[in-house]
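[step 3/7] fold_predict: job queued, chain A
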Amino acid sequence: MYQPPHFREDDLDVQHQLIRAHPLGLLITAGASGLIANSVPFHLDAAASEKGTLRLHLARANRQWQDIAEGAAVLAVFQGADSYITPSWYQTKAETGKVVSTWNYAVVQARGAARVIEDAGWLLAQINALTGDHEGPREQPWSVSDAPEDFIRAQLKGIIGVEIEITAIEGKWKVSQNRPVADRKGVARGLEQMAEQAEMQELVCRYGGLGTE
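[step 4/7] structure written:
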């Protein structure tokens, strides 16, 4: 991933937070079937290895798991907050007009040694962990055990597990921190007017040294 120094985010905890906040990642493999990309919900176990371990499952009919079993290279991409940034928010526009539009975003890419798992106990644990990640905050959380046991057993037969021990992880937070302070303030004010961009507005303020503006 292209990473100018001012956009690098090397803090592992921050990278993990993005993965947990945006767990629907893109699983990319380069193997016998060529390049394959599938959107998959991941569960992150930060304590399982030095940089964390990603666990997921794929449909048995999905050829991608077979490529992984045969040693295909694996890349997982997690897209965080993103937003179009108009030059109209920049003080520089009024001063010189020498500005162009851009796109702000936060993203994490992870690579690692992947293995395929068919064990029913592992698959059930992975599904329970993934479900717990998202049902836990609900007032009346649904549990896998709420479904009939024989139904769950049948569902498990249709999936394959994949575990990726992360060996390399990169974070890129491109959130206007390369702009002059006045431009950063303008971006923060512009994003503040867009309710759906609250996360990006917070990132621009934090990484741009603007406090709670």
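[step 5/7] annotate
Residues 120-135 form the longest helix (16 residues).
The first strand starts at residue 24 and ends at 31.
exit 0
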